[in-house]
User: Which sequence fits this backbone?
């Protein structure tokens, strides 16, 4: 029997495009990095290297060459050469995004664009590469299978029980599909810089193999030869080829991910199976605080995604199917700009302030491109629609619905019309409307066709049925009692602004809803942390100013003004909240529509204080052990009280490889997309909180309260003193913008319902809440299109099948429609098209056709979608019966909602004070002095001269590690001081001479310190492994003075 083991060394880099420096600086490093890499590939004809699973790094490199006036085509040719030789592995992604904080389509486009960019140079790598993203979504497996990727490499979030831990496991998606998952048990750097100290390479390899062999599931062990932003590829191949590291029972080879997957699969091991999402910080942190860090970015990103996915792209696709142009280049540019904000250090909000300022600019640019495309298409649409129905019309409106569901609702337009008017639809039906004191005109619109439009006309003269005609089921108000009521709900507003909501369908009464809670946050950008002594402040039983904004019959609205007196920050020792207090003002608009069970909220907050977390609470008092939340392509069930970790079961082998920051307790803070829901089976009642771009929730077990995080203000990328995390998460650099001292707007809703999330149509309600109707005002003109039309409709039981995409296929031949069934039961869906469908097929997520679909009567598809299945349809359409005219109509795109703007009298605490700058400069100076003193101390003074050689080497290694630890800390602190002073000058001397001089002087210094910091980080991590190696040479296995750490 062959017992020979194989140690696979994979040479790679993990490239954080922006983190403690912006891409302005790190992109400059790409030129020497690629030169060194090309040099290595030339020198060693068998050398192979993994380029972090991404392709944006190549685009950035070529762009940097162009900026520096260097030969771009020569480098492009070299890239093609090595990619085609399978020696440089690129892709399959465009970039290393965070899978939990972006949309479903962003995940798919990251792979579509990544593979497209890779194919400009050769074939993309055929393996998933989830090196450092902060937790894994449940549908990761199905998405990778949809791109024919045979396996994934993964690190964070793995939730194996201690006795189950192996180097590989099977990962099963909620649809039942499985992938082989390679677990980075000992991180992605356990064999970094082997050749740098070649004399100990053999010993280090033996040491790492010894760690992993007890947990290996096959005769293969994975050693990762790389780290973050390493500028010099490790010259490891000649040493491997020379037999260094080989022993009597294992051999060492340089490998690549596909080969390692194949080697494991060949042995057909018996492996544990994990199912669904991986979100445990037991062995390595998943950093749940990133869900709410810099919430303003999450909201902006959500808005940008929707503008692109839900508006611009679908209308482009429809007009293309009618013979119009499909502006692929513009859409791709918008997608790339959007995706460039999605790397884990970017969208997670865990970088320096300059990085996130760049993100705001990129998001704004992407959204502007999408908006311009959409508005241009609306002009074309309006030009083709016949709006000549009423010659006397005061206004011609076209209401556009870009969702896959037929829907109605209430729209609002500016009220600039005479006292007596009526409003009619394209069929001549009089529509109900409501006037709010000359400010807005609210119109009850009929069901607008899915992916279609309806024409409305504002006409002079009184309505036939009184003031606009009452809707069939109006909303009524009791002004004195502050009660709003419709056929589904009764909403009573209390003196403190909290609500009592009665669900008429189930008889359930919900008390104390809409209570705001403010608590301290002694954490950092990665993790929320309570201090030793917290003080929670709520809006309960505090008087609120309450005013009516609208009183039916279509919509009723109330404005609630709340002021919390909260501490200005943390105490100097960060163990409690400060004694100084400041007013924190909140204004919430509550809206209830006539025919809706959804209570909508829009809360504007002027954040005036630091180091705190603001949440809004919805006590449900429903009996359930679980909550369910929408995630990407799924609805996930999670326990409200998870079982605690029992680390007494951790074997010595497992304890030895746990090297990084960890969350010591199971997290109860979770990600969501558009809703979280609790369902009480006995009562047959459920309650959901819907949101727009607010990805963090927690269920508080007392009263099963849904806590929705609105903002979290902190002042550091990472700190070492959190109570909710152990270990090193990242650089200790001040980030005053992460305090979010700005005015922010939050949109969310409460939706009580019968049954569970599916039978209660929660997904449909959340989708509608996140997908507004578009209102276009145009002139009166003839057109070849009718006044009402719908192009594509998808129907399913309870609206539980959700659509995420309508686009042109990448090959330019067909429409792509993407649907998914997040339910646990198979569902049938019917797709109906206005245009004739020539050919229909199921396709993979990569848009490769898989199986034909029968087309009924030329326009209808009947689909059976399995539980949790993602379905991509490829539809070739017949020539359109409608022509897209070249002319464009004059249009005015009206806002979907006419909301009041709020001006606040309160001002925030200073973002940066002179004293804070001085303290940070003093911290940097103190660390620099300590580093210099330690560096000057001879290594012999740290050791034991009378000890044996191994002990002396260990002592020397520990001294070197301490030196590098202080070097890194001092460089981080100096960068922090520079950034903090720059922020202070920008705030207090904006644009004046001192501000400009500081910026000009600091840029080369930031460049210099940043490069030194990068080298120090690599050196420190290498020394951690060297010390660990020395430690295990001693007979007693003496512990080191430094533990192996890991930052993001």
Assistant:
């Amino acid at each position: 029997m062959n017992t020979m083991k194989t140690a696979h060394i994979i040479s790679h880099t993990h490239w954080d495009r922006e983190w403690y420096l912006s891409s302005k600086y790190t992109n400059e490093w790409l030129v020497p990095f690629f030169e060194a890499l090309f040099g290595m590939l030339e020198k060693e004809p068998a050398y192979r290297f993994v380029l972090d699973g991404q392709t944006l790094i190549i685009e950035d490199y070529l762009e940097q060459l162009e900026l520096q006036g260097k030969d771009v085509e020569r480098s492009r040719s070299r890239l093609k050469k090595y990619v085609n030789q399978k020696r440089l592995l690129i892709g399959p992604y465009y970039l290393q995004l965070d899978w939990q904080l972006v949309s479903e389509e962003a995940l798919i486009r990251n792979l579509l664009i990544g593979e497209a960019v890779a194919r400009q140079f050769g074939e993309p790598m055929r393996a998933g590469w989830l090196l450092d993203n902060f937790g894994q979504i449940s549908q990761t497996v199905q998405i990778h299978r949809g791109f024919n990727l045979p396996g994934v490499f993964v690190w964070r979030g793995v939730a194996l029980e201690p006795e189950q831990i192996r180097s590989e496991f099977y990962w099963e998606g909620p649809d039942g599909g499985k992938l082989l998952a390679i677990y980075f048990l000992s991180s992605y750097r356990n064999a970094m810089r082997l050749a740098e100290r070649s004399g100990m390479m053999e010993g280090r390899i033996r040491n790492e193999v010894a760690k992993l062999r007890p947990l290996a599931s096959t005769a293969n062990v994975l050693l990762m030869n790389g780290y973050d932003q390493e500028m010099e590829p490790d010259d490891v191949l000649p040493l491997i080829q020379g037999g260094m590291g080989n022993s009597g029972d294992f051999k060492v080879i340089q490998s690549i991910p596909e080969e390692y997957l194949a080697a494991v699969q060949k042995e057909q091991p018996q492996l544990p199976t994990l199912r669904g999402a991986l979100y445990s910080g037991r062995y390595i942190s998943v950093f749940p605080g990133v869900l709410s860090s810099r919430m303003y970015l999450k909201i902006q990103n959500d808005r940008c995604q929707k503008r692109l996915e839900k508006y611009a792209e679908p209308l482009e696709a429809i007009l293309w199917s009618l013979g119009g142009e499909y502006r692929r280049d513009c859409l791709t540019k918008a997608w790339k700009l959007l995706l460039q904000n999605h790397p884990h250090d970017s969208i997670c909000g865990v970088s320096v302030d300059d990085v996130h300022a760049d993100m705001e600019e990129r998001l704004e640019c992407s959204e502007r491109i999408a908006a311009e495309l959409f508005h241009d298409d609306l002009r074309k649409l309006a030009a083709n629609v016949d709006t000549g129905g009423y010659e006397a019309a005061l206004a011609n409106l076209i209401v556009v619905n870009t969702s896959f569901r037929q829907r109605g609702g209430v729209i609002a337009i500016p009220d600039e019309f005479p006292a007596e008017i009526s409003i009619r639809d394209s069929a001549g039906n009089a529509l109900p409307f409501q006037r709010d004191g000359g400010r807005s005109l609210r119109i009850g619109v009929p069901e607008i066709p899915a992916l279609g439009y309806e024409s409305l006309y504002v006409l002079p003269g009184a309505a036939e049925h009184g003031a606009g005609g009452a809707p069939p089921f109006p909303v009524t108000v009791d002004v004195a009692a502050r009660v709003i009521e419709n056929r589904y709900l009764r909403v009573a507003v209390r003196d403190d602004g909290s609500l009592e909501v009665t669900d008429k369908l189930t008889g359930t009464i919900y008390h104390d809803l809409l209570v705001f809670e403010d608590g301290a946050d002694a954490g950092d950008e990665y993790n929320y942390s309570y201090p030793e002594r917290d003080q929670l402040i709520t809006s309960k039983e505090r008087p609120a100013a309450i005013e009516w904004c609208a009183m039916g019959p279509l919509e009723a609205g109330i404005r609630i003004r709340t002021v919390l007196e909260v501490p200005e920050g943390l105490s100097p020792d960060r163990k409690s909240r400060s004694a100084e207090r400041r007013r924190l003002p909140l204004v919430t608009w509550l809206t209830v529509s006539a025919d809706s069970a959804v209570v909508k909220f829009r809360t504007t907050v002027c954040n005036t204080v630091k180091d705190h977390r603001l949440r809004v609470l919805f006590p449900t008092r429903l009996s359930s052990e679980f909550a369910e939340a929408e995630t990407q392509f799924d609805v996930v069930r999670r326990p409200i009280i998870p079982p605690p970790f029992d680390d007494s079961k951790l074997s010595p082998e497992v304890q030895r490889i746990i090297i990084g920051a960890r969350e010591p307790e199971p997290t109860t803070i979770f990600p969501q997309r558009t809703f979280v829901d609790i369902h009480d089976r006995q009562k047959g009642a459920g309650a959901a909180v819907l949101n727009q771009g607010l990805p963090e929730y927690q269920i508080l077990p007392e009263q099963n309260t849904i806590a929705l995080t609105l903002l979290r203000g902190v002042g550091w990328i990472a700190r070492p003193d959190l109570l909710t995390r152990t270990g090193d998460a990242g650089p200790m650099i001040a980030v005053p913008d992460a305090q979010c001292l700005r005015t922010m707007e939050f949109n969310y809703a409460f939706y009580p319902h019968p049954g569970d999330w599916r039978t209660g149509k929660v997904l449909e309600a959340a989708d509608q809440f996140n997908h507004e109707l578009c209102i276009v005002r145009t002139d009166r003109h003839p057109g070849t299109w009718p006044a009402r039309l719908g192009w594509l409709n998808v129907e399913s039981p309870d609206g539980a099948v959700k659509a995420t995409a309508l686009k042109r296929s990448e090959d330019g031949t067909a429409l792509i429609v993407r649907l998914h069934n997040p339910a646990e039961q198979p569902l049938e869906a019917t797709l109906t098209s206005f245009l004739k469908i020539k050919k229909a097929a199921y396709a993979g997520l990569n848009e490769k056709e898989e199986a034909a679909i029968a087309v009924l009567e030329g326009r209808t598809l009947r689909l059976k979608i399995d539980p949790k299945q993602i379905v991509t349809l490829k539809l070739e359409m017949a020539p359109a019966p409608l022509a897209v005219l070249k002319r464009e109509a004059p249009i005015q795109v009206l806002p979907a909602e006419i909301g009041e703007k709020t001006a606040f009298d309160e001002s925030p605490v200073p973002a940066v004070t002179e004293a804070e700058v001085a303290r940070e400069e003093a911290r940097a100076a103190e660390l620099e002095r300590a580093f210099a003193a330690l560096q000057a101390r001879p290594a012999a003074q740290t050791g034991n001269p009378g000890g044996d050689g191994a002990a002396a080497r260990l002592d020397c290694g520990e001294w070197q590690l301490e030196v590098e630890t202080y070097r890194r800390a001092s460089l981080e602190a100096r960068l922090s001081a520079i950034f903090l002073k720059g922020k202070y000058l920008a705030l207090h001397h904006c644009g004046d001479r001192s501000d400009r001089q500081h910026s000009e002087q600091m840029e080369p210094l930031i460049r210099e310190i940043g490069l030194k910091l990068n080298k120090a980080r690599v050196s420190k991590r290498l020394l951690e492994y060297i010390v660990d190696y020395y430690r295990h040479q001693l007979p007693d296995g003496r512990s080191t003075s430094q533990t192996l750490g890991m930052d993001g």
The longest strand covers residues 555-567.
